[in-house]
Amino acid sequence: MILALVEHDEGMPDEASLEGVAMARELATAEGDSLEAVAVGDEADELTDILGDHGVEAVHRVTHNRLERYAPDAWAEGIVQLADERGATTITGPGTDRGRDVLARVGAKLDAPLATDCLGVDVAADGAYELRRNRWGGSLIEHARLEGEHKLLTAAEHEFPAEPAPSPTEPTVSAFEPDLEDDDLEVRVDRVETGDEEGIPLGEARVVVGGGRGVGSAADYDQLEELAELLGGTVGASRAAVNEGWRPHDDQVGQTGAKISPDIYIACGISGAVQHMVGCKGAETLLAINTDPEAAIIQKADWAVIGDLHEVVPALNDALREAD
Ligand code: FAD
Asked: What is the total count of domains within the chain?
C-alpha cells in the first residue's frame, strides 16, 4: 500500500499535498497497489471529498489530544505506527518544509531511504524505484535508485499536476490515535503568529512582479506593487532585497525562498543569479527589466527591456491604466 502524507488547513489540502498525492497515484497505478492518505487533525469531511476526487481510497486521520499544533516527531511517530498497522511500504509527502521535515524523521525511525524533490519515478522490474530528483535547488538533476522494505519520497514542487484522478473514489475514513511519549513532543510549535495574509500567495500567483537590489529602496516597491495589482498578480523579491530589509522573507523567490510557476514573471532590477533562477524557472514567460544588457537574466529571459526600472515600470503602469 502507498501512503500519502497530506497537509491541510482546516480540511483544505494545499496544492503541494495534492501534487504529492499525484506522484503517489502514479506509483500506485504502476505497481497495481492501493493508495491511502494520512492527515493529522480532526477536520475530515471536505478533505475526504477532495482526496476522493484525487483517487485516494482511504483517509486516515491521526488524532491525539497532544497534537493540536505541529510536532514533527509526533507526526512521524503517528505515521510510522499507522504504516505498520496498514502495511504501507511506500510513504510519500508534499514538497514542503514540513513534508521533508516529517518524512526525514519517518526515515530515521524506519531506517528507510528518503528521496526528496522527486521529478519523476519509474518502478523497476525488481521493485526498486528509479527516479530523477533536484539537487542543489534544481541546478543539477540526480538519477537515483531507491531500494528497501520501505521507500520514502517527496514530490518536487510544481512537477506533478495536482489534477483530479481519471476515476474518482469514495474513500473510507478512519481515526487513528497513536501512542505518543513525552519525547515525541519535545519539538513542537508553541505559538503561531500570523503575518500579512493579504493578496495572492506567491506560489499560486499567475503573475509575479519580482524586485531585486536594483529597485533601490523599500518605498520604490510601490511601483512594483501597482504593476502587480494592475495585472492581478503579486510581488516577489530577490534575496538581496530581502537582506536589505526592503521586503519580508515570505516574498523571496529562489533556492532559499519560494518556487513560483506563474504565467509571467517580470523580474525588475534582478541580476539572475543561479540561486534566484531555480525559484522562477517554472515561469511560463520571463520578462526582465534591467539597465545592464550583460546581466545573466537577460540571457535567460524570453523578453527583456534594457532600461531603468524607475522609468519602465511607471510607463507600464500608465499604459495599463489607459488600456483599462
Ligand atoms: P544584484 O545581483 O545586485 O543585481 C541587481 C541588478 O539590478 C543588476 O543586474 C543591475 O544591473 C540591476 N539594476 C540596478 N539598478 C537598476 C535600475 N534602476 N533599473 C533596472 N535594473 C537595475 N538569491 C535569491 O534571489 N533567492 C534565493 O533564494 C537565494 N538563495 C541563496 C542561497 C545561497 C546558499 C546563496 C549563497 C545565495 C543565495 N541567493 C539567493 C543570493 C544570490 O546569489 C544573489 O546574490 C541574489 O539573487 C542577488 O540579488 P539581486 O539580483 O537582486 O542583486
From this structure: 2
